[in-house]
Design goal:
Layout: H1 8-13, E1 24-33, H2 37-48, E2 55-58, E3 74-75, H3 81-112, E4 124-128, H4 134-147, E5 153-156, H5 158-164, E6 174-178, E7 182-183, H6 186-199, E8 203-205, E9 212-215, E10 220-223, E11 227-236, E12 256-265, H7 270-276, E13 283-286, E14 292-296, E15 302-312, H8 323-336, E16 345-355, E17 362-365, E18 372-376, H9 383-398, H10 421-448, H11 452-460
Parallel strand pairs: 1-2, 1-11, 2-8, 4-13, 11-18
Antiparallel strand pairs: 3-7, 4-6, 5-6, 9-10, 10-11, 12-15, 12-16, 13-14, 14-15, 17-18
């Protein structure tokens, strides 16, 4: 049985029996390392699209223990103005279409296979917490309407927002609603993915970390503590854990792990929900670059994360629980919802996301012989695209030329982080620079605020982590 102390999601799931570790030697067509959304989707599509290939999937811990089981559980398009500014309109439009298709595909899979993922289908709301962020929302609305006029986005004015929320940081602001976003339970969902993959014929082995990877012109050999897999191709779906791989199969500095922290309250009473509004029970985030977010659960809790819950990680991943970070996040939570200052926090946890230098996924082959494929990184919301990444990687592994494999991010020349400890230092500097810039804007907003409760709330958001 795996630990149930990894997150609220794991705790709520209850007892789970993992598959046995790999023992002995297996010879297959493809071996997939990593049992999260990317890896399970890839393995599933290798079995279900075209002639079924023999596939082994190796997970270092238990399915659901890693990032796919610790995330916020929100499926969104997630392409924003940062991507547009960095990569231009045409390339951003391609990514937008890909992410939009991925969101629809994820929903289609849940419905078709009756995945018991606790879906909450109430859409999302992004809120400008002050006048200085309204222009960002207007630009986001224009981008959505330009890229996809059928994408149902709605402007929410201050009066409407005030009817939905009772928060000092939402007073007098504006919002942008997207109706296609949905929420889900990530542990239930990733273990439903395990069910689909297993039913399709994938051999899933848990507690089977890859401790050695050796290649030659004929095959790839992956060794675990108790067994070995020999395959024609290897897919590395290790994402934020890629730096822990036992060899130099990936480019140095390909990605850096970033911590993402969140916490869950006790179930709120009807009176507590009424006190904060939150009438539509949707995914809600602010429009800061390092944004805060909040979401309900099916049992009436509120989960909160973001902003100071994002930080560069050490390679050893030794700070998945950081008291200082949770203290700061809970202060932010009370700034948004002072009515809940006495509510009990029942779960605090952290996970890691894969940060690439240019904020985009790295996906494709990593070697000239085209034996090894990898995927890592995302542009901020990686859940939905992981489902379509699996299909794309399956096409690449089969040598299929498709509209997915022709996406411009596939097999592109990527920018990398500096080597060694400089990578973590550079990532930390990037976060601190962005946080300092936002704090200056927050200070100006505090000075301009008319209501005392707004001044207090903005003041709470300014203090950096020490």
């Amino acid at each position: 049985m795996t630990s149930t102390n990894l997150s609220f999601w794991a705790d709520a799931y209850g007892p789970y029996t993992a598959n046995e570790p790999l023992r002995g030697e297996r010879r297959v067509d493809v071996v997939v390392v990593g049992g999260g959304f990317n890896g399970l989707s890839t393995a599933y599509h290798l079995r279900t699209e075209g002639e079924a290939l023999d596939v082994v999937l190796l997970e270092a811990d238990a399915i659901g223990d890693g990032s796919s089981g610790r995330n916020a559980g929100a499926a969104v398009v997630g392409v924003n103005g940062v991507v547009l500014k960095a990569h231009g309109e045409q390339r951003t439009k391609e990514l937008y279409d890909y992410a939009s298709r991925a969101l629809d595909y994820m929903r289609e899979l849940i419905t078709k296979h009756d995945m018991q993922s606790d879906v909450i289908d109430t859409g999302s709301l992004t809120v400008a917490i002050g006048d200085r962020w309204v222009k960002d929302l207007e630009a986001a609305k224009a981008m959505h309407e330009s890229f996809d006029p059928t994408h149902d986005v709605e402007w929410v004015d201050a009066a409407t927002l005030a009817q939905e929320f009772n928060s000092p940081l939402f007073a007098g602001a504006a919002g942008l609603r997207e109706k296609r976003t949905f929420m889900f339970d990530p542990v239930k969902h990733v273990r439903e993915w395990k069910r689909l993959a297993t039913e399709a014929g994938v051999e899933v082995y848990e507690h089977s970390p890859a401790i050695e990877i050796v290649t030659n012109p004929r095959e790839v050999r992956v060794t675990t503590p108790r067994g070995t897999v020999v395959a024609n191709r290897l897919v590395l779906a290790t994402n934020a854990y890629s730096h822990k791989l036992p060899s130099d199969v990936l480019p140095v500095g390909d990605q850096t792990p970033l911590y993402s922290y969140q916490f869950a309250t006790e179930p709120l009473s009807p009176e507590q929900w009424d006190s904060i509004g939150f009438k539509n029970r949707n995914w809600t985030e602010d429009s800061l670059s390092l944004f805060h977010w909040a979401r309900p659960t099916v049992d009436g809790r509120l989960i909160f994360g973001g902003r100071d819950g994002l930080k560069a990680a050490d390679d050893g991943l030794t700070r998945e629980y950081d008291v200082r970070v949770f203290h700061r996040m809970e202060r932010d939570f009370r700034a948004f919802f002072p009515q809940l200052s006495d509510v009990r926090v029942t779960h605090r946890w952290g996970g890691v996301i894969s940060g690439t230098f240019d904020l985009l996924p790295h996906i494709g082959f990593v070697d000239e012989r085209k034996q090894i494929l990898r995927v890592n990184g995302c542009w901020g919301h990686g859940v939905a695209i992981a489902h379509l990444h699996g299909k794309l990687l399956a096409h690449l592994a089969r040598g299929v030329d498709s509209e997915l494999t022709n996406l411009w991010i596939v097999d592109r020349k990527t920018k990398t982080w500096p080597p060694g400890p400089m990578r973590t230092t550079a990532a930390r500097a990037a976060f601190e620079g962005l946080r300092a810039l936002e704090n200056r804007t927050i200070r100006r907003s505090a000075r301009e605020a008319v209501r005392p409760d707004q001044k207090r709330a903005f003041a709470q958001l300014q203090a950096p982590i020490r």
